[in-house]
Amino acid sequence: MGLIKYVYRRIALKTASALPVFQWLPGYRREWLRPDCVAGLTLAAYAIPVSLAYASLAGLPSQAGLYCYLIGGIVYALFGTSRQIAVGPTSAISILIGSSIGAMALSGSQQQANLAMFTALLAGGIGIIAWMLQLGSVMSFVSETILSGFKVGVGLVIASTQVPKLLGMSSNGNEFFDAIAGLARHWGEIHLPSLAVGVVSLVLILLGERFLSGRPVALVVLVLSVVVMFLFPLAELGVQTVGNIAPGFLQLGMPSVTLSDASGLVGLALACFLLSYVESISVARTFGLKNRYQIDPNQELLALGVANLAAGLASGYPLAGGMSQSAVNDKAGARTPLSLIFASCAIAVVLLYFTGFISNLPQPVLAAVILVAIKDLIHFKELRHLQQVSKVEFYTAMAAVVGVLLFGILKGILLAALFSIILLIKQTAHPRITALGRFADSDRFGETSRYPNVKRIPGVLALRVEAAFLYFNVQNIKDEILRLIKLQIPPVQLVVIDLSTSPYVDLAGARMLNELYDQLAESGVNLKLAEMHGGVRDLLRAEGLIQRLGGFERRMGIAELIDR
């Protein structure tokens, strides 16, 4: 019996770990039910028009966006660790799917839907594999700076594709400059009734966001626009509508794709999942910090992986936890993931009974909904802030913006990631090396360029290398140290290198320090190393340098070495 209880306990712990619902549901309070229900209904009111709009961005049937919200919310509620995040289609992933799969299949066709479904399945598989390998902490290092620039670029691309719909003009593709050129060429073809419907909807939604914050303004505008289409002959005047939406509940099934198509979707699926995870974990941490609870990065990999798998089986496409829908959920009072279940139930009712009503939704209204939704993506203020605080981060973000605009969504983010790596390598290859001086009546040292009251000790050059010593930067470090020695007046007799900001020294670095010791010794200059980390001391001892430096074992400071 004892063994059975032990096994049962282990299984229960493993299940609770894989399914966090078993952690928060037993402690659920009755007073949370009403705010969760209100938040779920409010989220559904926001999600319905937005998901229809995002599905059009992806070139998929309108109900595909609803399926993503319906199934994604239920699955994430079981597997996720965030209490406020709302999972569904996002503008960035939608345009990524539309631009990438649009070149492989006819827009709106069943083949395109199958390719989108299979991409979601692949993205889900990638997430589950990443969870099994416990890569949550590793993937968290994907640069948010790239994401900032990427969002700006995607926002501009989306705007360029939606403005023609707002004006009642034909679309000119998903590429930014093609869309802008097409808009300029066909400017005289503006359809005034569509323009009127779109602009009025845009103004109403913006006014609603300003004066009725937290209310389902977009849904109200959607309903009003359908009523107006019934009352006035706008369709006869040429105002385009969403068209037929398949009624009824979603059906689970595997998409039909060829082997060549499947292999061509791997890169897209990886990009979708990386984008999904980086955005989702950022949003989850934001609301976790606000509401004082912890997010498990590895569990989020599993939650997003399973949610994408479910979306792929339910005629959806890759999804993520977006900031806008999560903010709606949080602002409406969501206490637990149960709000996502309520939202899914509301969307299910719409799919069962109101698809005929939604089919009369004007396209310019959807364009207005998208344009309002993406305004949170285009943060030029963030780019200006990056320019002020870090040139490297700013250039990385701008690479993402320019890459997305010039080469498209997928190639743009890959280019930005490559550019970020190149800048990081360049920065590491030429690390900052600063001269140090001593504070008066103290054993503390500070940068001479930062603290004018520090004093250099005659005949002594104290330096700090602010990087690890690696095979591709050690020669640059050595050259810079020798250059600084030549500039000193009077001549240097002792060089002390502070290694407190050098957590790692590889074999090439250790041998360079040995060479530097010999070269300085030939000129009558002594070399000492201060504040060495344990691992660095071990390697330098193995290379014989510690013995040559005096054989000291403990971590000695600059002042102690100078006075020794």
How would you sum up this structure in a few lines?
The protein is mostly helical and 564 residues long. The protein has helices at 2-18, 21-24, 33-57, 63-79, 91-101, 110-132, 136-139, 144-166, 176-185, 192-211, 217-231, 259-264, 266-291, 297-313, 323-331, 338-353, 355-358, 363-373, 380-389, 391-407, 409-429, 474-486, 507-522, 534-542, 545-549, 558-563; strands at 87-88, 320-321, 433-438, 445-447, 460-465, 494-498, 526-530. The protein has 26 helices and 7 strands.
Description:
The structure is a single chain. By secondary structure, the protein is mainly alpha-helical. It is 63% helix and 5% strand. The protein is built from 26 helices and 7 strands. The protein has helices at residues 2-18, 21-24, 33-57, 63-79, 91-101, 110-132, 136-139, 144-166, 176-185, 192-211, 217-231, 259-264, 266-291, 297-313, 323-331, 338-353, 355-358, 363-373, 380-389, 391-407, 409-429, 474-486, 507-522, 534-542, 545-549, 558-563; strands at residues 87-88, 320-321, 433-438, 445-447, 460-465, 494-498, 526-530. The longest helix has 26 residues, at 266-291.
